[in-house]
Specification:
Blueprint lengths: L4 H32 L4 H13 L16 H13 L3 H27 L1 H12 L2 H6 L5 H16 L5 H18 L5
Helix pairs in contact: 1-4, 1-5, 2-3, 4-5, 4-7, 7-8
Length: 182
Amino acid sequence: MTVHPRRTHSAASTLRWMTISLVLLLTTELLLLLIYRRINLDEGWYLNAAKLVYEGKVLYQDFAYTQTPVLPYVYGLFQQLFGIGLYQGRILTVLLALGAFLLSAATARRLAGPRAGVIALALLATSFFAATQYTYTATYALTAYFLAAAFYVALLDWRPDLRNALATLFLCLAVGTRLSTV
């Protein structure tokens, strides 16, 4: 069976356009939810914890915090750069969600080919649950980002010791964001 160059080019072009369209759809969906979704009561809790650690307060000692310690430091750093507020927290959350989704699609592509990457993006773009969980400040998007990064790095063609160390670091950061990741 021979593969015609025109068909191969056409299939690659179609997958490229589908990928671009899905990324645009996903971005639009997440941005609309960022702006219009109702406030989740946890958002203030996480954003305040992030603010407090950068004011010199110590987690668990100076104030109560019910999660593992990574999130306040990540979100607090973002607050230092862009200010403190609900939308700053949500913007970082959406960026982390997009990163997690794109890393997941790249991992699927690496494991099973270009179509698998597009299918992964399509599933994520049409998952209302994922979109709503990853648009308000909470542990979900940051945990998902670290998990997706760990799986992506674990499949890279790097020296095994470097690859495994970095993948393990990302897994530890995921657990350090949300203990139930274990």
